[in-house]
Amino acid sequence: MSTRWYPIYKRGSPQLRVFLPNFWLKLIRPVHKQPPNVVQFVVSVEMTKHDVKNYLEKIYNVPVVQVFTRIVSGETRQDPGKGYVVKDDDYKLAYVTLPQGKTFEFPELYPKEEESEQDKTQKELKKHFKNFVDRNKDRPGAPGWFSF
Amino acid sequence: MFVLTKLKYLATPINYLNSSITLTFSTCCNGCSREKLITCARDFQGAVRCVAASFLHTSSSRYDLMEFFDDEKNWGASEVKVGRAWKKEELRIKSNSDLHKLWYVLLKERNMLLTMEHEAKEKVALFPNPERLDKVAESMENLESVVRERNRAYFELETGETGEKEAVFDHEELGLKQFPELAGKRISKHIDEHWHYRLMTLFKGSAVAKFKKLYREKIANEERKARNRKRNHVMHLLKRFPHIDTATLEKLYPEVNIRKAMLHKKTLGNHPHNRA
User: Fold this and answer.
1) A2, B104: Cβ pair inside 8 Å?
2) Of B97, B144, B127, nearest in space to B2 by CA
3) Where is the composition biased (Basic and acidic residues) (chain A) (predicted)?
4) Residue B163 and residue A58: Cβ atoms within 8 Å?
């Protein structure tokens, strides 16, 4: 397609520009502990460091100091039934360093839910039942209501 | 104002120069907020209203890494309601600059959805309304095809050519025909060393011949089955509807011999008109 046609640049030609980039980028929670100004992305495999930097600076207006990229090999596993090997797609990770003083913390998108009423009562009931059983341990045969 | 800018941009080509190495973007990519642009693609009037709104810039532009995340009210929600994807008809009436802005809105939306999906997978949680990703993809595809239409029209007007990638029939390693797109102009076969090398080394040997034979057989089988399927379908139609208009049938299924099919026993039914 013409919009995805990148002609070979020859000296003297006008500057080549991308008007509709189709790169994607997703921000992920860092796998290992990182400094507070390092953000981790999964990016399109064909993106270079310069692409990542330009992408963030021009589209998202996020200042970038340094970008490290690496391609992670997709995991291989054996099919449990037939035994053939299946390989996941490779993906590219980008570690983006923000300038000094700027920090980013991955937000808690799924905060821990508070206990519902039902769970609370259930817990209470369990506790009382355990008390009851413990109380009657050393007096076998006595009815449950018989107590001092 | 809108009409003026539209006219101005209609006269300029958008996409005849691209590069894969350096990204140099125009910074005019935060016109409308993404929710507004996506949800207001409901009808023609809605689309126009949206364009009008883009000139007022009523929505505040967020410019942060937090753009990779959905609105805070949607965190942990079980349902996020959005509109449908942009249609081609709606995009055709937009100016080039509007399309350019919309592309970046869609791009950001896609990045956001991918981020949220990834995190949901990590947390083994529900990713609400995953069809949003499909809607964005459809919109982007439609937008790109509209841009391509304009590009084509511009090139045909200015140069007499389509401006598309040149593509020619070629043979691949096993001698099958291909229709690959070329990166540049093709050089003549007579002086193409690569072509000579391929001609001398490839498409040869008994294995290739055997493969081609089997491949042809496979294609022929598929064609035959499709033919029979169609004929059977026509015969069953004749069985169920004995008064069906044969002229229409012939028009719908030109490859089926209707007169011959009417004589077949499969067209016999329980109706007095087609009982044996």
Assistant:
1) no
2) B97
3) 110-124, 131-140
4) no
d(CA B6, CA B13): 13
Determine whether the interchain pair B111/A28 forms a contact, defined as Cβ–Cβ distance below 8 Å.
no
Contact: B67, A9; criterion CB under 8 Å: no
Instruction: Give me the domains of chain A, ranges plus CATH numbers.
Output: 25-97 (3.30.70.330)
Please say whether the beta carbons of B57 and B132 come within 8 A.
no
The Cα B34–Cα B106 span in angstroms is: 7
Please, what's the b/e burial string for B65-78 (b: 16 or more CB within 10 A of its CB; e: otherwise)? bebbbbeeeeebee
Digit-coded pLDDT (tens) for A67-93:
999 999 999 999 999 999 999 999 999
Q: Is residue A89 within 8 angstroms of chain B, CB to CB?
A: no
State the nearest Cα–Cα gap between A46 and chain B, in angstroms: 9
Q: Among residues B20, B160, B6, B32, which one has the least CA distance to residue B104?
A: B32
pLDDT tens per residue across span B221-232: 999 999 999 999
Name chain A contacts of B34, Cβ cutoff 8 Å.
none
| Six-digit token string for A63 | 């200042």
Residues of B in contact with A18 (CB under 8 A): 18-20, 23-25
Find out whether B101 and B32 touch, Cβ atoms under 8 Å: yes
The CA distance from B62 to B27, in Å, is 14
**3-state class (DSSP) for residue A77:** strand
State pTM to two decimals.
0.64
* Neighbour count for residue B22 (Cβ, 10 Å): 14
